[in-house]
């Protein structure tokens, strides 16, 4: 399986990840190398094997649906790039 | 003072040989003396001296534990209230953590002194500490070589005596491999043993924090403080924590050591193989029996790991979007531009490579072939270990196929770097506890021996490591700086 520069640009867009134009070919080469490595895994027969999502096969623990945290909005927003009236600011989405 | 064990330092503090402030000043002076190692990203001198002063007061009143007044360092992946927590990345270069990780909080409550935050591969993605935004860490045994990664700053700091001990994290070998490269003791606990709350996530089903120290006894002391159930971490294990110091002295007569033939096959450096033979002979003298075992699926551990780790990291790292914290690009044209450029400017090349790989593996049409298949193979690999550990008490193996390599030697070939993780990666897939302990030298560089145990058998691993350290002095060797 070989990835092209076009594939890399498409994946980068899916991840909203800016990559330098001059690096696209090297990413294509590295990712193709990784996919090559992964064919070994693909060839192994794992029919009927239950997928392992957690190394101890534990299920997600649930907690009672009650408030446990105090409001610390000001504290957390102190490190935000841009806030106004307790809201995070981003460029206008709807004109 | 920087060569003493935690027990010796704790005694010195109590008998009045030195104060915690003096001890802390000694380490701060050493950190300043060796800037070329680049082990620290942030030195928290003021708060360290303050904590040391408070520890001295506690010592005077007797309300103390073994770690009271002991200066340690935290990997810069653990959120530390009011302190920059960068995770080795430009995207978090301006991130002042608004809360403490559970691990940081526990050491604080124990009265330990935090000297600062140590360097690491960016987002713990790397095996050489060369992907850090803050530059490579140098191995104190030979400054032209890497300290290993991703907890390279932790390993270099402990080996060079720039901290008594340090915290690290291990997703595919990131505690054990740098511990081996720098000649120290490193323990990756069972998945879920140590809280991940406030530990910046890389691959959530694999990440685990643990101690990096100069001896198994010190590791036992640190783990005692780090381990335990945490309601703030939804994958934290609700399993009782034993007294890790109590079992250290248990004799090893009758211990069954499993040696997987796949771990000693081609690709292993001859010098390392011979060091390990000597170490295993030492264990035989202690009464252990060597048993040949097999791990038939080991050869697919690397691709399986890189599918799972990349997929999970691409999801975890989607939170860095330039909106609520971290780096934001200048003058974004629109929201997509804000996301794309903030992330593009903030992440380094290895992190981007893994985000791309993970995004591809999770994208429509590929999920079954990659992530789902990897989860199935993960079970086969885990089953191999379970079968083996039903026959033996512990598995022993190399940690890495070579000793520390030269800075820059593998940076152009990421696949070669990944392949060198062969002996450590499978353990994370199975969620098992494992250690690296110093076992000798090859070509003047430290060699580690890996011990792999049953789930939650950290006490047994520490015992097996400690008994070896009672009859050898490899762990007491220190680099000439």
Task: Write structural notes for this entry.
- The complex is a heterodimer of chains A (95) and B (481).
- Chain A has a domain of 39 residues.
- Chain A is built from three helices and two strands; from the N terminus they run αααββ.
- Chain A is 37% helix and 4% strand.
- Chain A is mainly alpha-helical and 95 residues long.
- In chain B, helix 2 packs antiparallel against helix 3 and helix 7 runs antiparallel to helix 15.
- Chain B has a domain of 249 residues: Amidase signature (AS) enzymes.
- In chain B, strands 1-3-2-4-6-5-10-11-9-7-8 form an eleven-stranded mixed beta sheet, sandwiched between helices.
- Chain B has 481 residues and is an alpha/beta fold.
- Helices cover 39% and strands 13% of the residues of chain B.
- At the A-B interface, helix 1, helix 2 and helix 3 of A face helix 9, helix 10, helix 11, helix 12 and helix 13 of B.
Determine Rg of chain A (CA atoms, Å).
Answer: 22 Å
Number of helices of chain A: 3
Low-confidence stretches of chain B: none
Order of helices and strands of chain A: HHHEE
Give the class of chain A from helix and strand content and strand pairing: mainly alpha
Distance between the termini of chain A: 43 Å
Q: How far is the N terminus from the C terminus of chain B?
A: 16 Å
How many strands, what sense, and barrel or not for the largest sheet of chain B?
11 strands, mixed
Query: From the helix content, strand content and strand pairing of chain B, which structural class follows?
Result: alpha/beta
Largest interface (C-beta under 8 Å): A-B, 52 and 74 residues
């Amino acid at each position: 399986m070989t990835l092209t520069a076009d594939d890399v640009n498409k994946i980068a867009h899916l991840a909203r990840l800016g990559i330098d134009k001059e690096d696209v070919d090297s990413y294509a080469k590295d990712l193709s190398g990784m996919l090559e490595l992964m064919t070994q895994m693909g060839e192994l027969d794992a029919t009927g094997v239950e997928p392992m999502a957690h190394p101890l096969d534990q299920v997600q623990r649930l907690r009672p649906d009650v408030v446990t945290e105090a409001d610390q909005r000001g504290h957390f927003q102190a490190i935000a790039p841009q806030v106004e009236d307790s809201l995070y600011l981003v460029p206008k989405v709807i004109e | 003072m920087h060569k003493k064990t935690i027990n010796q330092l704790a005694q010195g503090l109590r008998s009045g040989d030195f104060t915690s402030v003096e001890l802390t000043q000694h380490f701060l002076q050493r950190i300043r003396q060796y800037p070329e190692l680049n082990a620290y990203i942030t030195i928290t001198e003021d708060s360290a001296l303050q904590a040391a002063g408070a520890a001295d007061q506690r010592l005077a009143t007797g309300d103390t534990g073994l770690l009271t007044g002991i200066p340690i360092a935290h990997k810069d992946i653990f959120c530390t209230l009011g302190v920059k927590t960068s995770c080795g990345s430009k995207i978090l270069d301006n991130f002042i953590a608004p809360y403490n990780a559970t691990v940081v909080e526990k050491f604080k409550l124990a009265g330990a002194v935090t000297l600062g935050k140590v360097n690491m591969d960016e987002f713990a993605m790397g095996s050489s500490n060369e992907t850090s935004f803050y530059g490579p860490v140098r191995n104190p045994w030979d400054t032209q070589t890497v300290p290993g990664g991703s907890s390279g700053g932790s390993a270099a700091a402990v080996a060079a005596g720039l901290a008594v001990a340090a915290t690290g994290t291990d997703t595919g070998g990131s505690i054990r491999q740098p511990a081996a490269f720098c000649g120290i003791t490193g323990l990756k606990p069972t998945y879920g043993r140590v809280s991940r709350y406030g530990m910046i996530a890389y691959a959530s089903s694999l990440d685990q924090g643990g101690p990096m120290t100069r001896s198994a006894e010190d590791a036992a002391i640190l783990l005692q403080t780090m381990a335990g159930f945490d309601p703030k971490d939804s994958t934290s294990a609700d399993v009782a924590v034993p007294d890790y110091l109590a079992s250290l002295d248990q004799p090893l007569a009758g211990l069954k050591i499993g040696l997987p033939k796949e771990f000693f096959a081609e690709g292993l450096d001859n010098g390392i193989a011979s060091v390990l033979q000597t170490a295993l002979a030492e264990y035989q003298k202690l009464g252990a029996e060597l048993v040949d075992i097999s791990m038939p699926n080991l050869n697919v551990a690397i691709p399986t790991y890189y599918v799972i780790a990349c997929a999970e990291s691409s999801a975890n790292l989607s939170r860095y979007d330039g909106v609520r914290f971290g780096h934001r690009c200048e003058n974004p044209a629109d929201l997509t531009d804000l996301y794309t450029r903030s992330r593009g400017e903030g992440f380094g090349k290895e992190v981007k490579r893994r985000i791309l790989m993970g995004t591809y593996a999770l994208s429509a049409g590929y999920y079954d072939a990659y992530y789902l298949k990897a989860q199935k193979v993960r079970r086969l690999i885990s089953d191999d270990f379970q079968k083996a550990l039903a026959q033996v008490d512990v598995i022993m193996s190399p940690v890495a196929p070579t000793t520390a390599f030269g800075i820059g030697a593998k940076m152009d070939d990421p696949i070669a770097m990944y392949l060198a993780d062969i002996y450590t990666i499978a353990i994370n897939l199975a969620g098992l506890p494992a250690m690296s302990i110093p076992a000798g030298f090859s070509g003047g560089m430290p060699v580690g021996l890996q011990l792999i145990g049953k789930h939650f058998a950290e006490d047994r691993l520490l015992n097996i490591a400690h008994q070896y350290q009672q009859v050898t002095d490899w762990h007491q060797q220190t680099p000439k700086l």
